[in-house]
Amino acid sequence: MASARLGRSIKRAPLGFGTKVSLVFFLGLAFVVTWWTFSSPSASAVSSQRSSFDDIEALPATPAPRKGKEHSRKKAHQKKPPDSLPKNENLKRTAVGSKNDKKEKEKKKGGGGEIEQVAAAKNETSKPEGQQEEEESEEKVDVEGLEEVTDSETATDEDMEEGVDVNAEDDAGEDNLKNRSKKKKKLGPLFDPKARYTWKLCSGKTGHNYIPCVDMEGGHRHHERSCPRTPITCLVSLPKDYKPPEAWPERESKIWFKNLAHPKLSEAIKTQSWLNLSGDYLFIPSEESEFKGGAQHYVSSIEEMVPDIEWGKNIRVVLDIGCTGAGLGAVLLKKDVVTLSLGLMSDQTDMAQLALERGIPAVVGNLRSKRLPFPSSVFDAIHCGECGIPWHSNGGRLLLEINRVLRPGGYFITSTKHGDIDAEEGMTALMSSVCWNILAHKADEVSETNIRIYQRPTSNDVYDIRATKEPPFCRENENQDVAWYTPVKACLHKVAAAIEQRGTDWPEEWPKRLETFPEWLADSEDKLTKDHEHWKAIIDKSYLAGLGIDWSNIRNVMDMKAIYGGFAAALASQKVWVMNIVPVHAPNTLPIIFERGLLGIYHDWCEPFSTYPRSYDLLHADHLFSRLKNRCKQPIVIVVEMDRILRPGGWVIIRDKLEIMNPLETILRSLHWDIRMTYGKDKEGLLCAQKTTWRP
Fold this sequence. Notes:
With 696 residues, the chain is an alpha/beta fold. The chain has helices at residues 2-12, 17-38, 151-162, 174-185, 263-271, 295-305, 327-333, 351-358, 397-405, 421-433, 525-546, 566-570, 590-595, 636-645, 658-670, and strands at 95-96, 105-110, 113-120, 195-198, 254-256, 276-278, 281-283, 317-321, 338-344, 362-365, 379-385, 406-417, 437-444, 449-455, 556-559, 577-583, 599-603, 616-622, 646-657, 674-681, 684-690. The strands form 4 sheets. Strands 10-9-8-11-12-14-13 form a 7-stranded mixed β-sheet. It has a 7-stranded mixed β-sheet with strand order 17-16-15-18-19-21-20. Strands 1, 2, 3 and 4 form a 4-stranded mixed β-sheet that branches. The radius of gyration is 30 Å and the shape is globular.
């Protein structure tokens, strides 16, 4: 009891003033030490604004000047953020970490490449020695179309970010769109500001011809498109003694063989008379092709059989299944017809690569159990010359896919070797079941082939007289445009009936169809007209003259995020062709692009594109990266894919938000690309760069 009373008396004893001051001092000191130990300064910022324009042409003036800021190397010093790195450190991006994390490294590996995330043991940030701050020099320039996105353009971009996913069987409901919108707000920067990029070459036997979603280890190929589970972050090697292609039109018939040297292509050269290897060059005479007698004779035979096929007027967009050299596409190109050659994955001779090297449109794919990555009713004609596809097998499922993508009233042209009676009988029965009309049949003695030309019905009335109901009709509410990893269905799609539906009318003749919009686009005509004028001004006043690009060396062009095809339409007068990519998560505007007489395809940029390395001379990406935060786990794979499909000496033009452009420039510099120009204004930026021959 006595000890308890003593304890209570001690607790009640008041503290002296000195004791209180000492206690407060020690508590404050402990807080400061704790805060200093666990805190760290903000990560160093990397300024990626271009510091020189001495090596490019001056930008042209425009009727309505748009002024911006340009850094110039003429000044000895540049104004930089307090934490910016010196210019010679542009291959590294290092974040400052805590003292306890001095030795920690986290490595993220995929496909042979490496991305390192490093924490440095610095707890204060200092400027490089001798760095001074001066007033930033300003030089007024005019860059067309670099103003901040207007309200209408913002609305379009928002649609692109949340848009209809053509990969889905059913359209997303309101709840899903709301959830996606909420998730979008929580996302951080597209590229990790702490990442430092180092690169490795891809391994494997495929070497410099590697197509990630087509090729397997060991030199074999998938039967269907199948992408690696681990994102590809390695770089594809270059062929030995690589050379840029000849300028157009020389490249159509003269190819530096080492650019695509392949054992099986070498074997084909020995047996194909139209492939002439002379020294280091492969020559393809214009009068010869994979068709005996020449492709010109073959095309003329088709015109004689069906005079209504007016190449370059009535017929503008053609799909050639089974690329055997692109002879058909080369001849039709002279008639203002754009022919997309579909190189089948089973083709080990790499003829699609040969077509692309020649400057003729081609893509690698397959026609088996999955739909082709195109919308419904878009091709004016489809050709299959000895492509070896068994159309009549499996209930005619593959022909039903052709029925889906062929325009009502469009032509299906096939040719087979003489004597293939089983195939001919099977095709006759199948065509009768889908009510396709055979317009002409000819046994051509020169080409030694049987040529048949069919036409898809333009009305549903013809289906009423079918003897049987096989194949059955597809559901009326089924979305025919869903085409990304979508199984081919054994059902027949009807023809659009209402005038406001797409496919009821044939497009205007080329080139009028480029700027003439049918009834089903009446509500969008104003948008399309403004989009066309917008891109025409940008290309005429900036791209063609202001970026230092020699367009005489540009032939194969890709618009990585096309909307209405305005970029491609504005380049129609140039000697180029444009592959318009409509991302699978975007609104389905690809039918509009085809309606205008242009080429396009669906694609998900979180995966590699189905083409050979070094396929394109120029890539254009308008706000592509800022719209992929909802899609890709590692956005760096998009840059890696751009490096794969762009040839050395090729160009990229990127337009996006400045917050994306700065780290993106650092990544391109780590790839040793030449940054030819950067420009920024009102949170919007433009970057023009050229790929080099550097490989790690």
